[in-house]
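Now for one specimen:
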Amino acid sequence: MNLEVFDIIVFLTGAALGFIVAIIAKNISQKGAQNRATSQGLTVNSIQQELDRKQVMVDDYFTATNEQLIMLEKRVSELRKSITTGAEHLSATTISAQPKSSEPDEEIPVVAQPPKDYASKEERSEGMLTEGYGLKTKSSELEPTRSV
């Protein structure tokens, strides 16, 4: 057999095997992509269902809490009425049904003072709270000394 014919046969066999392997790899990757898309779709759906379930739980919790607060307010109102009627039977003093507000009748004026400078300093020198404190710089601090 001629060497050129043998090379052609090997080349064609390799090309055919490469084509077959490429088709098989493409099918496998498409199936994997479909499986991933399906699993991601399931994941998104399950997360959405979990979020909806949690939202319903939160709504139910606040609804139940609101109902309990309303019942508690009714019980407190009934208790106040009971205490008021009992006190009226026991004494001649009249008791108002509404509690007094805890707000003060008069407002206390607030006197604002500027902050005090407690830093140690000499007489008539600037304190740390003055506007110009620390702004004066020496010229030697601005320009570094350079030696040639």
